[in-house]
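sorry for the late reply, my laptop died twice this morning and i had to redo everyting from scratch. anyway the thing you sent over, i finally got around to it. pasting the sequence first so we're on the same page, its 307 residues, then the predicted structure underneath. double check i copied it right bc i was rushing
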Amino acid sequence: MSEESALIQSRLIRDLEPVVAVELDRHLSVQKNWYPHEYVPWSEGRDYAGPLNGDAWEAKDSRLTPVAQDSLVLNLLTEDNLPSYHTEIAISMGRDGAWGNWIERWTAEEARHAIVIRDYLMATRGVDPYQLEDLRMAHMSLGYQTPYENDMLHTIAYVSFQELATRISHRNTGKLMKDELGTAIMSRVGNDENLHYLFYRDLTAAALEVDPSSTVIGIERAVRTFSMPGLGIPDFERLSKEIAKAGIYDLQIHHDQILEPCIRRHWKLEEITGLSDEAERARENIFKQMARTQKVGKRLAGDRIDA
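ok and here's the structure:
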């Protein structure tokens, strides 16, 4: 990041702090505290093989379909990497004042997601616990690093997309589970993700009002380089293909349910005036990228139907 860009970022972090404070207060007024242990069927659990001399896990133990298992593993491993996400967000936004208060609250709420999904899977023997732990160790050992470190505008735009995408993925996974409790868990987690999405979406909208050119450039970076934070998970390509095939999350969903509502309906990028030349080029690139995503998404969806 250039010295000029760093100064702009510093100014925006200062100018947007009152907005962060208002959005945090709104978030706290509408969110509902919930407790992971209340969603876990502990009475179904039994000891696993190992020091407790329990029963070895077998594939027949799971009441989940293979694609539901794949999706839950991917969702859980993504949630597990929270320490890296916290670090990246704290670096880009800082931890002073309302920014720090939000980051800590967001982190605490996100931590519940991994707790409830993992405990549910362990109590119900939903997935192979040894494979899951090996994947967790491999994924968290890699960590996560944004391609635009210290870039607050890229971060808030990216997390807007990512939180909305995660909400959709969690809820669609729940619908496939054919298990009332599992569906309730994924819906509960999805509700949290939706509130987090609203926070970042509205913060990005405020940034567009304060400095539209810099913010459009940040949004373009997020659109162009977007990938889900689980990208580094071992076997990610196979898992993502199975999840796309099941209609949980794919490029068509990414275009229709993430990019379109954020960029056109909420941020109204087409209506913004007075952009710098660089920001105008960035806006053009955003809509070109959206068109490409839509085209490829429709083609891949058609290929899956024909297969």
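The radius of gyration is 20 Å.
thats about all i looked at so far, will dig more tmrw
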